[in-house]
Amino acid sequence: MTGWWARLAHGGAMAALLLIQTPAPKETFLEKLLRIAGLTAAPSQMRGPSEEVLSGNIWMAQVAGGAPKALTSDGDYRSPVFSVSDATIYALRQNAIVRVPLRGGAAAKVSAAPGVVKLVGFDRSSPDEIVVLLDDAGSPLGVLALRSGAITRLPYDRGSVEQQRALTQVRGQDRVYGKTTLYIKTETRQGLSRPIEWTDVYIQSDGPPRNISVCDGVNCVQPALSPDGRMVAFIKVE
Question: What is the C-alpha to C-alpha distance for residues 107 and 116, in angstroms, rounded to an integer?
Fold first, then answer.
């Protein structure tokens, strides 16, 4: 995987009428990584990361509206992402990657995940591999093969400002999927003796921002949008 950050991901395409080989739109690995992570906006335009690692239960909300519902109840989940097929959510639980079916059923361990601190996401061209953030300052990104559990570390140039910005945003929680933005917002209300603060998940697409998690006093974090744009998964902290 030498040169992943600079290598072009796509080749040329044959022009049907002229029968001449013309180049298709090219995508660097950095651009591909940002797209997988839901960071289609320029990294410099995004907000900074949240370093605090929180866990809880996985909840899901429909973008079209309706009350969110819990997918798990036994806790200790973090970093949910949707599979390419939209039928499953993958998440971290302790030191393993688990699979949670959207139509109900218990979470099942898929692979050990030593040193993995966050799931970044899938790419449609490699549905059995997931990009992960690692607890390794020298090589902080990798690709984990779900079938074997093997992790291939991606080269990282600590001297590249562009790569540093991309990594900062991967560590954060704000996500921009095309025209749809997911972000965390701090809410507050007055309690009996002091103000109560928590975070909710907001979504903004064609209209004004909407509170899609409605957690009302409990922190909700780590949002992810499904590939079809219809569902949002998030963590409701214990």
Answer: 18
Q: What angle do CA 44, 48, 51 make, to 5 degrees?
A: 145
Alpha-carbon span 93 to 116, nearest angstrom: 11
Residue 5 covered by a domain: no
Q: What's the number of domains the chain is made of?
A: 1
What is the value of pTM for the model shown? 0.81
Structural domain for 202, as ranges: 12-237
Task: For residue 201, tell me if it sits in a domain.
Answer: yes
**Position 189 in a domain:** yes
Question: pLDDT digit string (tens) for 102-152?
Answer: 987 889 999 999 899 999 998 888 889 999 999 988 889 999 999 999 999
